[in-house]
Design a protein that fits this description.
Helix content is 48%, strand content 8%. The chain has 23 helices and eleven strands. It binds flavin-adenine dinucleotide. This is Acyl-coenzyme A oxidase.
Length: 725
């Protein structure tokens, strides 16, 4: 049957060119046909319940809601997601909404994301037995309140106190200053009944540091605030407006002593403070949340790219560069567009596989922790920190570029792109600001290099630092050179890994060298009784950027390794030397499934565009020591050109493979059928109260916007014009 219009015909034609069945790719990504269908059924139920399945209609979210409308909509979808999970016994929406926003977009999102994991991971067995059933039955709604107006990153700067009252066996939670106001937590404004509040634990005037306390915020009968508590919504943000991110002030709020979460520390009735053996277990919630964020942002980047590729397939603009052309070109035909979108698609897939690898090592850690073995904790902590930083930066920058790829319509809320960009925007900040996260990884790295120099073993995940030939090099000049001698060598995953390993190793040793040579512990002399001493911490600040570069280079290697090892079926011939999985502490024993060749081409594109794209944030570090020569860069660039050509037929199929429903994309320009213009105009007419019949007094055509124009005329335009007459 012929397509109803030109855009839909263009979409059908482009889709028909694919070299593989995108549905099969969807099954591979989501763990098989059955799992995919279960997942899709959950989305369909939610979309039906929320009335967003018919994508011919303007989504409610775009209908010009006020703050209250946004919040009520958040409650509605949050409840639908929770009810579906309980009724159908699944965890599909544990970390993302039906539109793939991080689940804190729902006012109930902290229950699965941070509040719940804290109750499971940082409580004593008795506390767990009490709180977790209440959580699972949906009888309490939680939030996690750590950040204050005055401090976010620097935890020791937080000022809220929880002082033990030995007479009443209670803690008194208090906000002593304006800057100690808790600020930001999702659901803190109106929704949460309880909060895990991070506060300085004070006993007999002694501060025992930041600890988690369970504070009931609201009376469960009428939801009035408990005595001494003030909360409120912090208003409209760049995104995530469906939740009530809020503030809280505590004025001498009394809670039972046993509301200190005692998984890591204990306070006895007589005021004895007992430090737990496993203080570092406190990191467990953070690592869990970071792992979830990594998963989520990859999907959000993919959504933005899918919208932009579909639009670019049907959007025609100009007659291109052919002297004989008469018809207009779809914008995808322009090389810059093609390059941008395919390299972004490659990044989205890279994040998907890296996230899966991250979960594998996180699960290994939790299994070991249960057996009392903490040995993997530093590596997993360092990896989740850097991966959180890397993935959120790549995803938010990438989604913004995908938005720009859609020109003016990308700026319209109707494209679905502003909400994706807005929801991604805070990800580099929350749950550990990215530049601080990279430093945590760098700290682990510097310790690893000190061990290597002392001839001691290091974790498997960073053992390449000891074996990569450049490892002794500490300066910017290196004698090592990339061994690739022909363009086809760059297609070899082992060559790609070698290049990334070299860069990561060199930057790590370089940063270590800078730190050591800058740190001085000079002894006083007669001439200089108090010579300047540059402490390690000061040297750290001086060389913060090389340290961050080293951490970023490591994690980019991790991401590439994960992409390669997850998509390369292991063959009996492959030797351990050529195994493309140098990162994981213990590589997965099962062989990955067979992905379509285009996905492997996309993987190569990911590796090579990171090297040759001058806009790639760290590409200079591949060349600055001369490891990759100028000639090799030209060769890589030519190879990238070939790869892009090869992938041309599969651009849509690679996007379709993600299996996003039209409703979850929420885009007038990114729907499956390509019917862009009819949908844009249909939604535009539906804005602000729907269509209005035209032909009024002035006999003009209908206008959308309800009474907005009328009110504008009555209040401003009319008096203004009359005043001038
Ligand atoms: C949407 C959203 C949701 C949030 N949800 C919650 C929540 O549920 N619960 C909660 O408790 N908090 C929440 N937060 C707060 C969030 O965790 C903090 O905003 C975050 O930790 C950053 O802290 P900050 O805002 O104080 O930034 P700052 O620490 O002031 O950072 C500002 C700048 O200073 C730089 N900087 C700071 N320290 C260093 C350093 N040591 N080295 C180098 N550079 C540095 C940073 O790189 C950044 O560029 C949320 C925030 C947002 C935006």
């Amino acid at each position: 049957m012929a397509a109803p219009n030109r855009q839909m015909a263009l979409m059908d034609k482009a889709r028909a060119c694919a070299t593989f069945n995108s549905r099969e790719l969807t099954y591979l990504l989501y763990g098989g046909k059955e799992a995919t269908e279960r997942r899709e059924a959950a989305f369909t139920r939610i979309e039906d319940a929320l009335g967003v399945s018919d994508t011919r209609k303007l989504p409610l979210a775009y209908a010009g809601q006020d703050r209250e409308g946004q919040y009520l909509q958040g409650l509605a979808f949050g409840k639908a997601l929770m009810d579906d999970e309980i009724k159908h016994r699944h965890g599909i929406f544990d970390y993302h909404s039906h539109r793939f926003a991080l689940i804190i977009a729902s006012p109930f999102g902290h229950n699965p994301l941070m509040f719940g994991p804290t109750l499971r991971l940082q409580t004593s067995p008795e506390q767990r037995d009490y709180w977790v059933p209440l959580l699972e039955a949906g009888k309490i709604i939680g939030t996690y309140a750590q950040t204050e107006l005055g401090h976010g990153t620097f935890l020791r700067g937080l000022e809220t106190t929880a002082t033990l009252d030995l007479d009443t066996d209670e803690f008194v939670v208090h906000s002593p200053t304006l800057t100690s106001t808790k600020y930001w937590p999702s659901a803190l404004g109106f929704t949460a009944s309880h909060a895990v509040v991070m506060a300085n634990l004070v006993i007999r005037g002694k501060n025992h540091g930041m600890q988690p306390f369970m504070v009931q915020l609201r009376n469960l009968d009428d939801y009035s605030l408990m005595p001494g508590i003030e909360t409120g919504d912090i208003g409209v943000k760049m995104g995530l407006n469906s939740t009530d991110m809020g503030y809280a002030v505590f004025t001498n709020v009394r809670i039972p002593r046993t509301n200190l979460l005692m998984g890591n520390v204990q306070v006895l009735q007589d005021g004895t403070f007992i430090k737990g053996k496993h203080q570092k277990m406190a990191y467990a919630t953070m690592m869990y949340t970071r792992d979830r964020i990594v998963h989520n942002v990859g999907f959000q980047l993919a959504q933005a790219v899918v919208i932009a590729t579909r639009y670019s397939t049907v959007r025609e603009q100009g007659i291109g560069f052919s002297p004989t052309a008469t018809a207009e070109w779809p914008i995808m035909a322009y090389k810059s567009q093609h390059y941008r979108l395919l390299s972004l698609m490659a990044q989205a897939y890279a994040l998907f596989f890296a996230a899966a690898e991250c979960t594998t090592i996180y699960n290994q850690l939790t299994a070991q922790l249960a057996a009392g073995d903490l040995s993997l904790l530093p590596y997993v902590h360092a990896t989740t920190a850097a991966l959180k930083a890397y993935s959120t930066q790549v995803a938010s920058d990438g989604a913004e570029d995908a938005r720009k790829c859609c020109g003016g319509l990308g700026y319209s809320i109707l494209s679905g792109l502003p909400s994706i960009v807005g929801d991604l925007a805070p990800m580099p900040t929350l749950e550990g600001e990215n530049h601080v996260m990279y430093q945590q990884t760098a700290r682990y790295f510097m310790k690893a290099i000190t061990r290597i120099k002392a001839g001691l073993p290091v974790d498997d995940g960073v053992s390449y630092l000891a074996t990569t030939p450049t490892s002794s090099s500490s300066s910017s000049a290196s004698t090592a050179h990339c061994p690739a001698s022909s363009p086809s060598d760059f297609l070899n995953p082992e060559t790609q890994l070698q290049i990334f390993r070299h860069r990561a190793t060199r930057l790590a040793f370089y940063a270590h060298h800078l730190l050591l040579t800058t740190t001085t512990t000079t002894t006083p002399t007669q001439q200089q009784p108090s010579p300047p001493t540059i402490l390690y911490a000061q040297a750290w600040n001086t060389h913060m950027l090389p340290l961050i570069h080293a951490a970023r280079a490591h994690i980019e290697l991790f991401v590439l390794s994960a992409f390669i090892s997850s998509t390369t079926p292991s063959s009996p011939q492959s030797s351990p030397q050529s195994s493309p999985s140098p990162q994981s502490p213990s590589p997965s024993p099962s062989s990955p499934p067979t992905y379509p060749p285009s996905l492997l081409t996309l993987r190569t594109l990911f590796a090579l565009t990171l090297i040759e794209n001058p806009l790639s944030p760290s590409s200079i570090h591949f060349f600055e020591d001369g490891y990759v020569s100028l000639e090799q860069v030209y060769s890589i660039r030519a190879t990238v050109g070939d790869l892009l050509k090869e992938l041309g037929r599969d651009v849509l199929a690679l996007g379709d493979g993600w299996g996003f429903s039209d409703a979850c994309l929420g885009s007038a320009i990114g729907c499956w059928d390509g019917d862009v213009y009819a949908r844009v105009m249909g939604w535009t007419r539906g804005l602000r109260g729907g269509e209005e019949e035209g032909g009024g007094k002035g006999g003009g055509k209908g206008e959308s916007g309800g009474d907005m124009g009328k009110r504008g005329f009555e209040k401003v335009i009319g008096p203004m014009l009359r005043g001038r007459l």
